[in-house]
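Below: protein 1.
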Amino acid sequence: MSSQDIPEENLPAERDTTHGAVGVADERNPFADPGLPPHEHRIQDIDERAAKRSERVVALLFTVSMLATIGFIAAYVAIPADKSIFVFPIGHISALNFALGLTLGTALFCIGAGAVHWARTLMSDVEIADERHPIEASPEVRAQVHADFKQGAKESALGRRKLIRNTMLGALTLVPLSGVVLLRDLGPLPGTSLRHTLWAKGKLLVNVNTNQPLRPEDVQVGSLTFAKPEGLEEADEEFQNEIAKAALMIIRLQPDNIKDKRELEWSHEGIVAYSKICTHVGCPISLYEQQTHHVLCPCHQSTFDLSDGARVIFGPAGHALPQLRIGVNDEGYLQALGDFEEPVGPAFWERG
């Protein structure tokens, strides 16, 4: 059915879209203005039943999008991460990944397809030629823009097509929930885990290289030894996470060279234990200068004075290295007398 078959009184009203007479090529203007072709009405413009069918199609697509989003959330919760299925011709794949991709893809596709079908069949498709004009809009142009906006809103039939409006809003409201659900993969909140390490009262100081407990005589003056808590093994699943907080460096100083009173009280015969994790961005500290008792972080050159409470004397680190209070047990082995009293490593939002 075309517009020629419909009585003129049934055709929708159109606004004037002319933009001057069609130009004629001449010497001054070699490119003639071809003008606009006659506008052809769509079946939805002249048949309300066809418009209703298009409206139902758009609403169906938005509804399918909502159902797909709900399916995405249900699949994420219900399907085990280790379950696999056979999909021809791909083969065996993760059932969870397949379900998430299928449902999320369907949700996004249906929103896009619904919007495109809405625009192509129900929104106004009258061709408009807009002449060039100065960048600065005149009051008349601004008034025309406002009028065009109101006209466009009216022609979109958003207020009249309540079924489309409501289903579209439902689809657009539900689809962001997919991203909210994915936040679960960020893991549980850290709580107070950043404030605590494996060190506790009675934990032996174990040499990282020999995997043997340390005695005071094993640490010589001027030497640097790295230690870990008793019971922490490299084969442990959480080894990397735990050693990143509990890594320890052991240095033996002459007691007379220790300037900080608390550092001396927490040491044993000049043996001091400090966190190996730099308080700037968490790099492992490994460079020790025996004459000055300074340790240097190789990443950004933060320097700490181990004879004065490991305070920062150079570099971007914000605070001193945490010290671990140590002593000797009945068998003569070095042991921790508790955990660090402050979080190790870089500052974080819960510090203090």
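Below: protein 2.
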Amino acid sequence: MTGRTTLRLNRLRRDTSGERAGRPVAARGAKPRRRGAQPKVVALGGGMGLSASLAALRRITGDLTAVVTVADDGGSSGRLRDELGVLPPGDLRKALAALCGDDDWGQTWARVIQHRFQSKGDLHEHAVGNLLIVALWEQLGDHVQALDLVGKLLGAHGRVLPMSAVPLELQALVKGHDPDRPDEVDTVRGQVNVALTTGEVQSVHVVPHDPPAVPEAVAAVLDADWVVLGPGSWFSSVIPHLLVPELLDALIQTKARRVLSLNLAPQPGETEGFSPQRHLEVLGRHAPKLALDVVLADVAAVPDRDSLVDAAKRFGAAVELAPVARTDGSPRHDPELLAAAYDRIFRMHGRIGPWR
């Protein structure tokens, strides 16, 4: 490493020292916020579900932290993970893109980091953001500091953290994974295989079985006013957070209010045929000590409200139904409608925060 490079990296470390100390990455040009002026929100998940939640939450708070699963083993992330032994960067990249603002700067950078190369060579289907994140990991030798730096470059409206400091392998017990043996239970390995299985997922676990949590992620959960879990792929993006012991302990011990945001529809393969209440039942089997305050669901996605209310009561939670889906009929959340639902929940449930 040259002397010039060393000076540059030292300068970058100083520039991100505030974020590393626990202060969120501010949007480009944002004014300093008075501490306590907005709710401190932590959102947990991965993939497009977490992106939808972040796109909504950044509209109602500037104190936002995403804690992202690190079990992806497919596509560009899987290739970088296999070749370099790094955390899979894809879900982290998607979270950063979701936190970009709606101005020209934010939307330009969101498109850039999501851009995938198209070629006949080794770069085919690699995402620009994945390469940028991994390059900074190698340069700085620090997962959190590198992600803070990318967030600063993008003007992200929040902070992105990995849930664990080591890449995880997701494994599932699946009944009928082999169509020729519909009653047998097999172990299915890898997030992609779990997400695509045509069998019935019974349970999931991660390898290593006792992975270390990222300390900053644990601290964020303990310091939050609100924690949002979901939406997203239930077994491969939502439940994995409950399989990191230190993170689960923080979710149980935190004084924050906890919101579970349900999916708009069952996911083909992974949760085929699941009712809203069954999503809660499998969550409870993986984390029986976890309490919730609110379960949020789209009003059109709940055919049996009473059954969902009964399932939510086992967690100590109330049910909030609201229109949160896009009006085009696709099973995607509308960021403005979801933001309105979160805002109403934050105002009406539990303590009224100082941001009001």
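Residues 335-348 form the longest helix (14 residues).
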